[in-house]
Specification:
single chain; 331 residues; alpha/beta; FAD/NAD(P)-binding domain; 2 domains; five-stranded parallel β-sheet; 23% helix
Length: 331
């Protein structure tokens, strides 16, 4: 696992923003590599199979490469194909199924000149003058922290509705992922119940799905408990804490659409400072996206810390250009 070539920049994360960083690095003539712990655009791959994006295809484009969709709102499968074709047509230097295990900073002279980072992955070592972290936030789910959460019938990643046909399904949450799971499994014949901590369905839910779920709840097709939480998950039941006290429902499967969080511990391990509040926003220069650790940059949703609803593909694409402009200017 000896490092060989020295890259101008190593990009950690092979999602849309990581690929955008690769395109920007290539346009600047920088020597780069992208390492991704899973498959290409791994987070998108784990989205529900029938998912439709809220954004238009134009707003999901990277590197000025057109994204042509059959409909105004592209699907998950169309996005997977688009980003794959971008990687192929641009001949991006992407290394897949390589998880970063350690990032070491080797100091140069007194002025920081000649500094290098050594990055050890599950397969090899890299050396780079700069690091870009574009790891997204889809890897660590928010846990319920209730008894029974580790039972095999509980999942934080909803994929396909057919699996739940004719089953009693509890969906936890009230935002896009929960609403999609509830509607799709119900349409495949599942007996669906939602448990929602708040008093209504989330206001950020896609405009075509929100009235659909509200109507299904009002007509009684999908049952919903608002201002309620899960108290316990049992093998064949779930216990809910409602306004009327504890109730027990028969249950086969639990889809906990409770949201996800970035791996902030990974940033801290590299010395990146985080705000001392509940958002824990990383410290970085808004103009260059360089962190308090010289040579380490942040791109994409990870810039927002725990506020994962502030940054998306369409308003993170510009990060790639800012970062590579700064790195090129240093070179």
């Amino acid at each position: 696992m000896e490092a060989t070539a020295i890259f101008d920049v190593l990009i950690i994360g092979g999602g849309p923003i990581g690929l955008a960083c690769g395109l920007a690095a290539k346009a600047k003539g920088l020597q780069y590599a992208i390492v991704e712990k899973g498959c290409l655009v791994n987070s998108l791959y784990h989205y529900p199979q029938n998912m439709t994006f809220f954004s238009t295809s134009e707003r999901l484009e990277i590197g000025d490469i057109p994204f042509v969709s059959n409909n105004a709102k592209p699907t998950r499968n169309e996005a997977l194909e688009y980003y794959r074709r971008v990687a192929v047509s641009a001949k991006l230097n992407v290394h897949l199924f390589e998880e970063v295990k350690e990032v070491k900073r080797e100091k140069g002279d007194a002025n920081g000149e000649g500094e290098l980072f050594t990055v050890a992955t599950s397969k090899q070592k890299y050396q780079a003058k700069n690091i870009v972290i574009a790891t997204g936030f889809y890897d660590i789910p928010f846990l319920l922290n209730v008894p029974g959460e580790t039972l095999p019938k509980v999942t934080h990643y909803y994929k396909d509705p057919h699996f739940y046909a004719f089953q009693k399904v509890l969906v936890i949450g009230a935002n896009n992922s929960a609403v999609d799971a509830a509607l799709e499994t119900w349409r495949k014949g599942a007996d669906v119940t939602m448990v929602v901590r708040e008093e209504e369905i989330g206001t950020r839910v896609k405009y075509w799905a929100r009235p659909d779920i509200i109507n299904r709840i009002e007509e009684g097709s999908i049952k919903a408990y608002f201002n309620a939480t899960v108290a316990e998950i049992k093998e064949h039941e779930v216990v809910l804490q409602t306004q009327d006290g504890l109730i027990t429902l028969p249950n086969d499967w639990v889809i906990a659409a409770t949201g996800y969080q970035p791996n902030l511990a990974f940033l801290e391990k590299m010395g990146i400072e985080l705000a001392n509040d509940e958002v824990r926003k990383p410290h970085y220069n808004e103009e260059t996206h360089e962190t308090n650790v010289p040579g380490i940059y942040l791109a994409g949703v990870v810039c927002g810390g725990m506020n994962t609803h502030r940054l998306f593909i369409e308003n993170s694409r510009e990060h790639a250009v800012k970062i590579m402009d700064h790195i090129a200017s240093k070179s």
